[in-house]
Amino acid sequence: MAVQGWIVAGCFVALIGLVLTRVAMLRRRGIEAFLFGATHKSDAVLVPCVLAVVYCVTAPGFGWPMWKPLVAPFWTTPIPGWVGVGCCVLALAGLAWALVSFGDSFRVGIDDQKPADLITTGAFAHSRNPIYVSFVLFLTGLFLVQHNPVTAVVPVAFAGVVQRQVLREERFLVSHYGDAFEAYRKKVRRYL
């Protein structure tokens, strides 16, 4: 299990690193790509929730205080963990493909001031939301590796938050891109 945990931790660092690197690259070109919470102030409540989850997921590995029932494993066999590692690696590859496909249009949040081009190629030719799909796949893999109450709730809760955000984004995309987005929506599924 320790090997699986280290692989998933590496994937997590790489996942966050890819996003932050892309944001930094765009910022150097004068594009503000991190707009999370700028359009919808209520999104700020997600930050402490994410930090709490990160703590719960990392605390056992570092020996930090944690209420044991929250991180007690559901099973002892390592086989689901290796499936989880595969999910995490696939999620990392999917995120990388989506970021490359997004190009300069990548944003964290809705950019209603300087929206970029509508992207419909690359990863976006297969899913309208490949980044969210990658994150949900990663969290599912994390659950299969750590398989405890915290990691069981996280993918489900995240999927709910993603659905809320996707609906917001789609309202914006319809209002901004009109018929072009409607045609794209008819051709490509929301998730998979």
Topology of helices and strands:
Layout: H1 2-28, H2 46-62, H3 68-71, H4 79-102, H5 130-146, H6 149-177, H7 179-187
Helix pairs in contact: 1-4, 1-5, 4-5, 5-6
Specify the biggest β-sheet.
none
CATH fold assignment: Four Helix Bundle (Hemerythrin (Met), subunit A)
Number of domains: 1
Helix residue percentage:
55-70%
Describe the protein.
- This protein is globular.
- The protein has one domain (2-187): Four Helix Bundle (Hemerythrin (Met), subunit A) (Up-down Bundle).
- The model has no long low-confidence stretch (mean pLDDT 90).
- The protein starts with a helix and ends in a 5-residue tail after the last helix.
- Helices cover 66% and strands 0% of the residues.
- It has helices at 2-28, 46-62, 68-71, 79-102, 130-146, 149-177, 179-187.
- It has seven helices and no strands.
- The chain has 192 residues and is mainly α.
- α4 (79-102) packs antiparallel against α5 and α5 packs antiparallel against α6.
List keywords for this structure.
192 residues, mainly alpha, 7 helices
Provide a compact summary of the structure.
Helix content is 66%, strand content 0%. The chain is an all-alpha fold. The chain has a single domain (2-187), classed as Four Helix Bundle (Hemerythrin (Met), subunit A), CATH 1.20.120.1630.
